[in-house]
């Protein structure tokens, strides 16, 4: 059963909600179960909507190296939006379609501004080709960093093609720092988070919402033809843009408050529950 937070708050041309043509969904905490797996029910639901001619767009904060095999398993014919919107990746052809990286000078400015606010921050960065980090970041990471990723020098000295800058703090939980850090680089970069222990920084104007909006518009559709699923603040731009936004029950309080509808948790196949009930035609 889909748990309704409220009735659909957006109105379209009359009272009828247009038929959904695009399904855009986050991965971790939303489509994927807590163990990182895709359930058989969720996989079947995604394949079913694609057989009906709808587009499925995966939108994640993760890098390309994480999504290649997963996208193939889900049979997605649409792109994979990686690095919170900075990279559009064609998994079927294993190629980057579009990349919106931070300018080198901007990367240096952002690091300096964030360190002025929180001197103990440790940084890492993603490009479309590699992940690198400062020793302090590796020591704080909740997951093993790739072999050869740790640098002796500061991240500020290597900055070409950075699609996502990451920062951790020795305190662990950074929830009380997010607003202050975002204010430090307002207008310079986009700051968000998908966990309480990590700050994620992209180029100004880059987020999941803008990347999915471009894909949808290029195919002649609009926000009202799009349903979006998410669980964390880095999904808010996408959820705010989509015609129908759905939060999973395990979502962050900000996401639950902003979404049009709430479904069951990621471990209870919340995305599949909604997809199975989508209207099939006018």
UniProtKB/TrEMBL annotation:
Keywords, sorted A to Z: Hydrolase
Entry GO CC: cytosol
Full protein name: HAD family hydrolase
InterPro entries attached to this UniProt entry: Cof, HAD-like_sf, HAD-SF_hydro_IIB, HAD_sf
Keyword Hydrolase attributed: yes
Molecular function (Gene Ontology), one example: magnesium ion binding
Pfam families: Hydrolase_3
């Amino acid at each position: 059963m889909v748990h309704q937070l409220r009735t659909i708050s957006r109105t379209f041309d009359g009272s009828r909600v247009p038929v959904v043509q695009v399904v855009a969904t986050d991965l971790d905490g939303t489509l994927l179960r807590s163990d990182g797996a895709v359930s058989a029910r969720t996989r079947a639901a995604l394949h079913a909507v694609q057989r009906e001619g709808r587009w499925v767009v995966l939108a994640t904060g993760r890098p390309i190296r994480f999504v290649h095999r997963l996208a193939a398993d889900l049979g997605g014919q649409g792109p994979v939006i990686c690095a919170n919107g900075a990279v559009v990746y064609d998994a079927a052809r294993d190629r980057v379609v579009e990349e919106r990286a931070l300018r080198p000078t901007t990367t240096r400015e952002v690091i300096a501004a964030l360190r002025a606010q929180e001197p103990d921050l440790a940084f890492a960065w993603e490009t479309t080709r590699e992940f690198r980090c400062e020793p302090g970041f590796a020591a704080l990471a909740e997951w093993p960093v790739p072999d050869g990723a740790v640098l002796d020098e500061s991240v500020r000295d290597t900055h070409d093609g950075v699609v996502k800058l990451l920062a951790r703090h020795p305190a662990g939980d950074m929830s009380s720092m997010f607003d202050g850090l975002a204010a430090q680089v307002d207008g310079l970069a986009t700051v968000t988070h998908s966990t309480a222990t990590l700050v994620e920084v992209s180029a100004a104007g880059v987020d999941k919402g803008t990347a999915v909006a471009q894909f949808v518009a290029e195919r002649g559709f609009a926000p009202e033809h799009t349903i979006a699923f998410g669980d964390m603040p880095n999904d808010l731009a996408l959820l705010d843009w989509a015609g129908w936004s759905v939060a999973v029950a395990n979502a962050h309080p900000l996401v639950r408050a902003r979404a049009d509808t709430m479904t069951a948790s990621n471990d209870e196949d919340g995305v599949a529950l909604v997809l199975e009930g989508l209207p099939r035609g006018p």
